[in-house]
Amino acid sequence: MELDKSGIATGDTTEDKKQRKQFIVDCYGKWIIANPEKRIYNKSLMAFIEVRFLSVEETSGHASTSYKSTLAVTFLSEVLENAIVQKDKRGNLIADKPKPNVKNQARFSRFFVMEYKKANFGKIKLTVGELRGSGQKIQYCITAIENG
Question: What is the DSSP letter of 142?
């Protein structure tokens, strides 16, 4: 297994993906220690985005399949704070409905797909779910946009 200078596996084997998944979990653990409130204010959404266990679970599952997506997670604070929410021509937020047969999405009323352009890296996709009832914004998943 070959690692980059950050300690992230660069290959595509099952072992590499498993290592990247653990790297992401560890990255979130360090982030939570540094950010005990587990939330950051996003300027575009004009709301706090909270990080929960679901955030770690979804992101480690999706981002670990790609080296670049794993690397994107290392910019967590920057992405949460600066990602831009998509808006229509009238300036209204564009939101997607949760997928009907996805258990992890059932607690959300809608999802915002946001983007962050990281210099010398590329685009990073941030998916934020809005909880039914409370309206709290929860970080759902972060991945790199490979062809963007």
Answer: E
Q: In angstroms, rounded to a whole number, what is the distance separating the alpha carbons of residues 66 and 117?
A: 18
Closest CA to 81 of 31, 112, 43: 43
The CA–CA distances, whole Å, from 104 to 39, 42, 54, 64, 143 equal: 20, 23, 8, 18, 17
Would you report the helix, strand and coil content of the chain in percent, each value rounded to 5?
A: 35, 30, 35
**How many independent structural domains does the chain possess?**
1
d(CA 111, CA 94): 9
Residue written as token pair 């997607």: 96
Question: At which residue do the structure tokens 């997928």 appear?
Answer: 99
Task: Kindly state the tokens that stand for 68.
Answer: 């670049």
Under 8 Å CB-to-CB from 58, ≥6 apart: which residues?
104, 140, 141
Would 6 be classed as within a structural domain?
A: no
pLDDT tens digits, residue range 87-136? 999 988 999 999 989 999 999 999 999 999 999 999 999 999 999 999 99
Identify whether 7 is part of a domain: no
Per-residue pLDDT of 118-129, as tens digits, reads: 999 999 999 999
How many residues are listed for the chain in this entry? 148
